[in-house]
Queue: 4 jobs
Job 1
Amino acid sequence: MDFAIEHEFDIPLDALELAVISPTLVHTLRKRLPNIEALDEREHSLVDGKLDRVWVYRANVPIPSFARAYVTREMLAWDERSSYDIPRHTSEWTIEPHVKPEWRKYFSASGSYTLTSLDSGRTKRLVAGKLELRVPLVRQVAEKLILSEVKKMFEAEAEALRDLANLA
């Protein structure tokens, strides 16, 4: 399932970008995610105009009764790895779920993140991605459910970016 999420900010690109690469973004975002039990930054390395970071998430959501035999609390955790290129104003990201290595073949999520200057000192952010759950029978329903949570997370991140950029 391909998706795109777009936000426009009444913030210049350079100020928004400072928020994107800020080591405090993870803390500002954490406060805006009620269904996330934990969000921590494992890596934050800014070298030669490139930010490499790893955020570790653990969700706190109810597991539907039909899925309890298959889905454990540990499966509701994942790493988000991203690499942001400051000169290009773009990022590539991937999601790696905390499941047994042999189960990782059933799920993949990756994409890009681009900031673009607009007129009047505004900025557009485009998040484009691909989410794939390779489990027959529940695939379509589960992908839609996961995507709705992904959208909530990027909405929360947009608000966190606004908060940080407006402090500058």
Job 2
Amino acid sequence: MKAVVNPVSSYIGRLAPSPTGYLHLGHARTFWTAQQRARAAGGRLFLRNDDLDSARVRPEFVEAMIEDLRWLGLAWEEPIVSQSQRLDRYRPALVRLHALGAIFPCHRTRRELAEASVSAPHEGGENDEPLYPPAFRPAPDAPLPPLDTAGFATNWRFRVPDGETLSFADGHSGRQVAVAGLDFGDFLVWRKDGVPSYQLACAVDDAELGVTEVVRGADLIKSTFRQLLLLRALGHREPSYFHCPLVCDDQGTRLAKRHDALALRALRQQGVNPIALLAGF
């Protein structure tokens, strides 16, 4: 399935679902918005399969994801980009951050982090991760262990510039502002199971695919500040951002993949007309 491309346009967008469950109405609205913005600009649209969470990714979710997106009438350029096939692209980024001294190894256990979070503020509300305690950081001039085989089997965190105010102009919600070290803390860029975090993989992919605008849900606004820091450190150009409002259920709770009744797969099986569904957005 090929997207219509204007050779003059420099716009590049992407769809980036994670196959850890079935897509729901919230995904449909966000991805439809992404396609509409790409088409309005006469640009290109890629499909990126964010499949690094090996514990939760399942083949049936990948298959359903592609079927659901095509059912909605979405089109993208082939081939599909799968993050699990791009590990050789993420390692050099970690090496670069290591050379810059922008990261540090984190050997704290989940229990230690949980105990520290009792008094620490949470970055995005009570359901988000707590700020990483500054006391857990090594000194800025502490020597870093090498990135040998053992180094790639280590949790690495990005050291945020405490007190720096970051901002970006969101295409939907206007100017967004956060203070590093206050609104978000040191964050994971690499996991000890040998794969990058969402933040690093997303930043590298968006840069290497030449994405000019990232369209995604408003729940990822805080992630944007983290990715802006990574893009800056790695010397990449920043894309534009458009964060879509979240879709909620009848009780006002934002949709998640556990909302089986509102999963696109379930709606397809019920014979829902996708055109009518999208017209309601």
Job 3
Amino acid sequence: MVMALSLVIDSNMLQSLALRAFLAADADNIAVLPDYIGFEIYKTQSLAGLAAAFSVIGNFPDQVTVLRSWGEIALIDELCPELVSRMQVEDVPAGIRRMAEELAALDGDETGASDALREHWAAAASQAEDMLLGADDIAVSLPEIAETFTLAELRLCRVNGRYTDDMFAKIYGAADELYEQAAEGLGAVVRRERSRARYDSYLYRQGLVTIIYALGWIREGSRPPKRLDRVRNDVIDMQFAVYATYFSGLLTEDKKAGWLYENLRRALRSVYDNDGLAWPAPPNPWWEE
């Protein structure tokens, strides 16, 4: 028996044949759209761009769900048994149908676009600026993370060598620190004990993927980022990787996003196993390898 899957969809796959095939393969398969995809959908500020963005999901409205913003997800109590369900926006299929109806009625005439649609376009421009601010924070943190390692350890990172126990202790220790700082800054509950609730936390997984991203940056030569828009894209990849750990996986063609997701999944498996904790039991089987 083939189990239905819920895949987080990268922006580059929104109009893909792979997404269409995935949704058509099983009526229970679900496309999980992070909130950032809304930026991708509306940033063109054109009806043609919208029509293209909805060319696949518009045919499968009942198989699409949308995630809340990372800030909302970060404040959900990790002990809540409906953790994954509460990450998702309600009434998504109805919204997709309404958009399809509006696009059909407008028939390419942008002068008749609704106020709600124009608000989405304006919000996309604002969101781009917010994401650049987040990229700046990440860019500043990279050298600070690198400073936690010795020269010999940095060389191991750059040649993709076998990490030592001390390196793993530093990696997970840095993730712990980022998690606790972020939780305290947002006013979220800080799970200081090593527990399933701690590792289920969105903010813990975000801290861990940030360290993984920094290790990739070190491996590539530790060059100072020159363009914040590229770092912004990396920040989005990191978010998608975190979201995918709560579902069946990530549908992407982006090598960096795929690398981040695979390494985050392995790192999470390690922390659960090392502390003798059972894997979480989402409805889909990516946990079983």
Job 4
Amino acid sequence: MNQRHPNTKAVVSEGRIAFIQSCWHKDIVDQCRLAFVEEIVRLGCPEDRIDVYEVPGVFEIPLQAKLLAASRRYAAIVATGLVVNGGIYRHEFVSDAVISGLMQVQLATEVPVISAVLTPQAFHEHEEHRRFFREHFLVKGREAASACWRTLANLDRVRRLQDAAD
């Protein structure tokens, strides 16, 4: 089901992609970036068109995304991080704030923001969970690359329609 707009490769290869990742549980979150880069390159985006930005935690991602989108340097922004339930309600507040913030950024700037910020119901520091989430972030990285690719193609198509109507 890899439906591509005919100009997708040109759109992605000409634009830059910002990849923001939080450093909390970095060994796990890194897997998303590695898989994203591998997949987006496989789809046709040159690796040198991807800029990586690290932030301390997920709460800092929306501001970074807003500033990057406002720079008009990026065709798309991808964000990843891991919000863990530490046994208090705070993780729900943080998750909601991050996802809402990312949505606000893309709606205000018309720069797509792809979220691979995960908020698992349960995460424990033992090796079984760490291994599971390292593998899961590989899947999410590939999915984020596919979503980014398709979103850029769809936006290009809509913008071409708008230009033709003008």
